[in-house]
Amino acid sequence: MRISGSGNWGIRGFGDWGMRCLGIVPLMFAQSLMAQTGSHFTFGTAVNPEGRNLYVDSKGLLSNGVRSIPVMGEIHFSRVPAAEWLRELLKMKAGGVTIVSTYIFWNHHETEKGVWDWTGNKDLRLFAETCQKAGLPLIIRIGPFCHGEAYQGGMADYIVDESISQGFKLRSMAPQWLDAVRRLYTNIFQQVKGLQWKDGGPIIGVQFENECRGPWAYYEALKKMATDIGFDTPIYTRTGWPKLNGKEVFGEMLPLYGDYADGFWDRVLTDMPGDYRKAFIMRDTREAATIATETFSKDEMQGDGNTGSTLQYPYLTCELGGGMMPSYHRRINIFDRDALALAICKLGSGSNLPGYYMYHGGSNPESPSQASHPMSEMQDSRVTNYNDMPNISYDFGAPLGEMGQVNDSYHLLRILHQMLADWGDELALQDSHIVSDTLAYRGQWKFVNTYVRMINPSGHSYVQMGSTPAMPFCKINGRPIYVEIPGITPHGMKDMLTWEQAQRTFKVDDRLYEAKHKGGIIYRYFGRLIEEWWKEKKGNIHAELVQQCSGLRQVKNGSQKVAEQPSEADWDKAAVWKLTVKNHHDNEFMRISYKGDCARIYADGKLIEDNFWNGRPMLVRLSELKGKDVQLKILPMGKDYPIYLQANERQLLDAADNYLLSLDKIDVIERKESKI
Q1: Band of the pLDDT at 23, cuts 50, 70, 90?
Q2: pLDDT over 50 (residue 33)
Q3: pLDDT confidence of 6, banded at 50, 70, 90?
Q4: How many domains does the chain divide into?
Q5: N or C: which end of the chain has fewer CB within 10 A?
Q6: Structural domain containing residue 600
Q7: Residue 28: which CATH number?
């Protein structure tokens, strides 16, 4: 089925748009569906009150007999202002996302033992209801461990304290741990009760744990606990990495996979270390270059997946790198083409669900009043302390950034996602045939990727169908529309957009609309079509230098043997500017272009935003600065700091005299929108 019509935006179900994204059609096809899927997956209730059903088989997702290739995008509700949820979800949807996934960070909600906070930006129930209003199904990743570069991997302070004082192991079969997890799951369930698929709600799946070796008995205990409490969804998942400690029972949880173009977590200070280049090739296994280990051998992955005699899971992903954060010691600056190349390689290798981590960035919440540690991972953290991360920013260089800003990767991925929306039901049935590292076929579909981050930036990433020398984009009244592949497609083809046109063209209601503004996106807000774009405004921010920096700090290695970020005492030595902000609006943002080690913004002495310099500017919501004493602090970067910088930034540092420190420009950008 195709994306067409505005849909029914009622609170019951997803409405027409959301259903069609999953290939959902009337119940008359249910009998044929049951014949296809078999019963080898032990999941929850698959039929909702409207008679729509959602199943999984060895190829992927089906509903009422119709296949699709959904697109999943990660956004963390507790890292995004609640007032922005609906708009940002609609922007995700306009980018081709058809399923939303989110972590539920335990320590964002249980601020002390037995004290829960589900209000404001932490209102899980409101977020799920907002997904439903937006017509987007939701998969909740309920932990207990999430990671997500959060303090203690998202686990509550008290349970970490008790594990130390009482001597039991976290993420184990210890009764004290399982009792605490039961309280967590019970509280999460109370928030989503009545909003599961079987109730007519948006929640179609639950992920148990995250990046856990097991043992399998631990996974079984979590699933039984959750289902006893009331979690009952058509899909249960886990991450397909790392390698499990022991053998699993087939069919209890779907292993979902992933890959990244680069990683902030590496301990070396060189470009593309290890196997990152292998993320950009076609592979006949599900083993990722950087994170995943296959659950099953290649022989076990062959078969029809229905009889149960030969095991087979569908190839689905939940963590394709939509971007990458900079850590303190490794300043990744992701390129706009990276995510597109990753997705094309995974689709060419047989995946039937591109799932991005992150698709939308965010900001860490304030620490609870009784906690002294920021809500981000640091080398002095407990539990998860592998990297120093910014206290506040979790922008991730994602297609939609921390403030909802639209990056070019959003538009590049959208071309691919629109193709999947209109041809995914056909493509999903085709097995992958790997010809070479750069070429794969799935039936008549040809997947090509010669682009490799930093190694071959001039390479191509595209998909072709049959003998047509262009990339499929969409269908309008059943007529295919194509996109010119730069350097590949001959000129003069009919029904074809240029590559640049495709990045500003949106399909809505079986019509094509072209954004009028650079970087503009078009989305439906209930009965209205809206174009959103971001533009520079005449500057109204005055910066006065009130303190010179007092020299370089001594950078030491932290507990994980990599460079440790500045201490609070180090920040007292920073260069300080007093900022005067005038005549701003809620949709305006301060963009700070600087060079140095890292920067912070304070309002009335409170930390509002922070940034590890990687060449990109720092964004700050002006709404958080209104009527306050605002300071910008920047620390210099020394030429010998043991920090990885990419080539452009490294050249700037090498060219500096003694250290790198400059405030280059502060301007204002505004999020604009108009009715079409």
Answers
A1: very low
A2: no
A3: very low
A4: 2
A5: C
A6: 537-675
A7: 3.20.20.80
